Amino acid sequence: MTKIQNSKTYDLEERTFNFAKRVIDFCKTLPKTLENIELRKQVVRAAGSIGANYIEANESLGKKDFKMRIKICRKEAKESRYWLKIIVDTNNLANKTEGDYLIQESFEFIKIFNTILFKFKNS
């Protein structure tokens, strides 16, 4: 699938890549505090791991490996959401809307990976 203008309808590899990129860009705008340095490290790792594990799932060696990778994707999406919520809730951000968008996007990933796991279980 290709990206449709003003739509979230596009390839999940591309979507997870864009999410990680937006998280990095968002983190660059955070105030340079000791706490934010640690939070940035955590959220950038988790956000990047979603897409990396999804790519690995698509190249999996079998059904068991695929399922494990998708579970890791879901776990990293949950972790990303957690760190983003802490960042948004503990900073007075000029771009809070971007943080809220990223929190929502991470929640969308959780739902997507839950659906994949549900369909996988029932196939």
How would you characterize this protein structure?
- The chain has 123 residues and is mainly alpha-helical.
- 78% of the residues lie in helices and 0% in strands.
- The chain is built from four helices and no strands.
- It has helices at 12-28, 34-58, 63-90, 96-121.
- The protein is elongated, with a radius of gyration of 15 Å.
Question: Helices and strands in order, then pairings?
Answer:
Elements: H1 12-28, H2 34-58, H3 63-90, H4 96-121
- Regarding quaternary structure, what we see is single chain
Number of continuous helical runs:
4
Helix content: over 70%
Count of spatially separate domains = 1
Order of helices and strands: HHHH
Shape assignment:
elongated
Strand content: under 5%
Ends: how far apart? 23 Å
Which short descriptors sum up this protein?
single chain; 123 residues; mainly alpha; de novo design (two linked rop proteins); 4 helices; disordered N terminus
Brief account:
The chain is an all-alpha fold. It is built from four helices and no strands. Residues 1-9 have low confidence and may be disordered.
